[in-house]
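dumping the sequnces here before i forget
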Amino acid sequence: MSTLRWLMAAWGANLRAALEYRASFLVQAGFMLLNNLAILAFWGVLFSRFQRIGGWTLLDVALAYGIAATGFGLTAVLFGGSFELAGLVARGGIDNWLLRSRPSLLQALVSRTRISGFGDLVTGPLLLVLTRTCEPRRIVLFVAGSIAACLVITSFLVLLGCVAFRTGQADDLALTGLNALLSFGFYPPGIFGGATRFLLYVVIPSGLMTWLPVSLMREFSARDAAGLAGGVTAFVAAATLAWRHGLRRYESGNLTAAAGE
Amino acid sequence: MRAGALAAAFAASARERLRHPIDPIGSGIFLALLLFIFAHVWSAIGAGARTAGWGVPQLVTYLLVTETVMLSTSAIHLRIASDVRSGQLGVELLRPVRYAHWELARALGVACVRVVALLAAGLVVVALLVGLPQVDARGAALGLLVMVPLAILVESTMRVLIGVLAFWFEDANAFFWIWQKGGLLLGGVLMPLGFYPDWLQALAAWTPFPLLYFEPARTVVAFDAAAAGAALARLLLWGVALQGLLLLVTRRACRSVALNGG
Amino acid sequence: MSAIRVRDLRKCFSRNRRQPGFAAALRALVRPDSVSVEAVRGVSFDVARGETVAFIGPNGAGKSTTIKMLTGILHPTSGSASVLGFTPWIDRERLVARLGCVFGQRSQLWYHLPVSETFGLLAKVFGVEDAAARSRLRELVDLFEIGDLLDQPVRKLSLGQRMRCEIAASLIHRPEAIFLDEPTIGLDVVARERIRSLLVRLNEQERVTVFLTSHDAGDIEHVCERVLLINDGRLLLDTSVDRLKREHLREKLVEAVIEEPSLVLGLDGAEDLPSEPHHVAIRVDAGRVPVERVIAEIVRRASVRDITVSNPSLERVIATLYQGASP
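..and the predicted 3d for all of it:
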């Protein structure tokens, strides 16, 4: 049976489990949506005063926000396990995944869904409507950018999670890193110096998450598209390698989680 | 005796916070990040910011002060909400000190350590990024030593109050969220209220939020004796009013617990 | 044809010794002080297809570590093993598709889903096609009598019900062998009995090799033909359950609370143990004197307020065995 069929079943199960708590579902998703709009309101105020910041206009910020929100929403809904990777591993989740004949990292990622992610998923299209983006070409770029953002965010969280379970830390590292990733992504690249910008593509990939996609929506260039594809692939590869490395250490019993007779 | 007990709670809480230095590092990193980003935002805006009468160092230091108030109070409302739901509140009737005051003393003990840590680290970061602004010493003293602690007291009082509301409402979080977002937007946390459109400034003036964030920060970086004095008076009034409200609400909750068993 | 072949399996863990204090923590960062712990010290055994084997030993004996190596979760330090023809740590994914695993203390079911859905999901995980999964589910429902549990979310099940579902779930993909790690832990007597008879039926009907670890002597007696005793990382005993019962499990401990300050039975085959005033403790060799006789004697000679009969603890069995093993 193909991996995709299994994934669809897993996602369906997560969704059904989430919907079981119907009231909580609406409240959490609703709050996330309102949260996003509140932050955008701040941006609206800032830009009403200063039309252009770092080369970006309010429209660009809105698009960046929309892409990040949709990407984040996809991560939260499809790969919700990425937020607590270190914790899941510490609680012995690995044993279960290893005893099943599917890739363990995928199992870890799809093991849960964060309901609030649905609010983020709605924010993206909402912003498309609010910014009156209706050309099919730009919509396609927005969707592609959101998928890329999802992959970047998930890979980044996996990388942090692997570090965390190696050092025995809790998931705080992952959440702090996520905070940084998202924070930088909402601000125009133009305000940062060259060195900082480089780091924000390679180390904390906010540039890959929002700057490149927004740039592509403003003006498409094959070079930027290739850069985005390459960057995303690199991060996904790095995450997979980090996981495999961690797994090998786990199997050799070098992680405290492996012990416990 | 009561004051002594409260002082003990305050000190014990502070000591405990000092023993776990890892916690503030999370907020410290967040703060450093924010300062870094906004230093760049304001520098990029450059001339535009100047016209409002604020220089970049002032704006970034302003952010430091508002964020310090925001970050030094932790999510105590959650713990209190669970205490309330578990009936722990009833224990107050056995103690000579009011539950509300006790929790407030503890919260302030924690906040005290965090404020010092955040301000110290933050000032270093600001100095490295954009340099410290020239400030009036009186304003800095009044702002940092009087208004910021008062703002933290009011903020903590509100959070304890929200926690106690869990007695009647299923989810305390909704109130907290409204309070927090209100503070963020209408308190002028990220940028001074003067940058807001007029109608929004008028709206904010009706709320206590500017007193918690905008006024203390402005007193530090752009001191105006008259405005500071007025703000301080209003802050004190709000502080007293909220204290009263908190005591009232907590007393009712306790009595309910005593009568019905929680 | 063997299901499991283990030769000289060894596992050492490197443990960091943590001293208290801030200075020590700093030092540990630069120069970690580690100690090597041997959890499994050269274990060898064979299990044939269709056998039911109990792998017993006290806490810390190396049971879970061994099972983890046999399922590929842990790599051994040295030695070899072959499970269903695969080397677990090399061919884990292919082995796992033919193996069923149940860990008593950890659940494989999805907590929030109804039982039937969790089965469906597991079927998809193992790549079992829908039609086959449905008919298999019907079989398992009959065998395990879980029909009325299917619609309930897992979190609402009692421990006993959950364990039946766990074991059923581990069989969805028709494994050739099933590993169970403490399957009856925390269960009451009735639930325990039920699980044990299910395992026996499973083995008889489907010729599934059963390899179970346990703390509980009763599990050995009722489910398994063979027992492997491990202690301190070494295999102390590899024998049939019959032999074990005949030679080692005939002991019973009778304890009573009496009105009189003391009582000495002096019965042949019943050893009087030292005890507090008003307490009696007798170790009975059931092969030499029936327990009823001892009880009757106590009741005859004293006013009994309370009386209990218990099996020897596993620790005691092992202690006896260990003594027997050394010359």
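The CA atoms of residues 71 and 150 of chain A lie 4 Å apart.
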